[in-house]
Amino acid sequence: MPMHTETQILAPIDYRAFRSGFAVDKSHSDCVDPLSEFLPLIRNFDKLAVGRHFWFILDFPEGKHCAAGGDVESLTPFTTQEFSALDQLKLHEATYPDDLQKVLAFSRFWIGLYDRYTHPTVCVSNLQMSLFFRMMNATGGYYWIMVQYPEAILDKNEKIVYGLVLATDISHIRTHGEPFMNILNKKNNICQQFYCLNETTFSKNEFSTFPLTNRERQVLQLLATGHGSKQIASMLHISIKTVDNHRQNMLHKTGAKSSSELVSMGIRMGMV
């Protein structure tokens, strides 16, 4: 993979710094019910998520959740009812302590992209963000999750009022390492990978992703969600042989030795 690496300065941040720049009230927003706005996308999570998952809607002016669902009660230390109205600081208490300020720095950077790439009615359509860190589960143990912010509702000043968050259990493909963030530009197939190395250094690796066709991406997405060749063939209305050909083409392009390695690579790069 061609890769270009550069180092920038970005310190891990605390919650006060994270909160700066968001909408402070909802009076400039036309949205009355964010759950209704996000519901079409939420309904797809069961089909598109690559593992057990939970979702929530963050009310930025209030600094707390206003709705939640999915596998909340096994993947977090909260009940679904608690999680649906949880103060954001309580969620931070369930984040692995060494990861928290780095996660806030990554999230702040991602949210800052809205200032450059959006207008009040759309999200950053060409960019896909994936954030990887450790979270506490229902038994008090920590596991790796992938967090994505698929959509946001902005006010008339282009400040975020509500954000939809999807968190997926990826403990089957990641068990150790440092928190990091990927931002995939789906238009030009460029992926930027970010790390907070210490309190003053912020590393960004930029590389080209594999040139998969649209059909190959569909097959990879379905492989990642646990479907076999026969199921994929039926869902995409193609033959099993065609599915296997797409799989072999992707293995060749990526250098992966198995379908599981291919899926793991796709998740790490934010391609699924």
Care to give the gist of this entry?
The chain is α+β, with helices and mostly antiparallel strands and 272 residues long. It contains 12 helices and 9 strands. 35% of the residues lie in helices and 27% in strands.
Structure overview:
With 272 residues, this protein is of the alpha+beta class. It folds into two domains: 3-208, Beta-Lactamase (2-Layer Sandwich); 214-268, Winged helix-like DNA-binding domain superfamily/Winged helix DNA-binding domain (Arc Repressor Mutant, subunit A). Helices cover 35% and strands 27% of the residues. It contains twelve helices and nine strands. It has helices spanning 15-19, 34-42, 45-48, 72-75, 80-84, 88-93, 100-112, 114-117, 214-224, 229-236, 240-254, 259-268, and strands at 3-8, 53-59, 64-70, 127-136, 142-154, 160-169, 180-185, 190-196, 202-208. It has a nine-stranded antiparallel sheet with strand order 1-9-8-7-4-5-6-2-3. β5 (142-154) and β6 (160-169) form a beta hairpin. α9 (214-224) packs across α12 (259-268). The radius of gyration is 19 Å and the shape is globular. The model is unreliable at 1-9 and 118-123 (pLDDT under 50).
Fold topology:
Blueprint: E1 3-8, H1 15-19, H2 34-42, H3 45-48, E2 53-59, E3 64-70, H4 72-75, H5 80-84, H6 88-93, H7 100-112, H8 114-117, E4 127-136, E5 142-154, E6 160-169, E7 180-185, E8 190-196, E9 202-208, H9 214-224, H10 229-236, H11 240-254, H12 259-268
Antiparallel strand pairs: 1-9, 2-3, 2-6, 4-5, 4-7, 5-6, 7-8, 8-9
Helix pairs in contact: 9-11, 9-12, 10-11
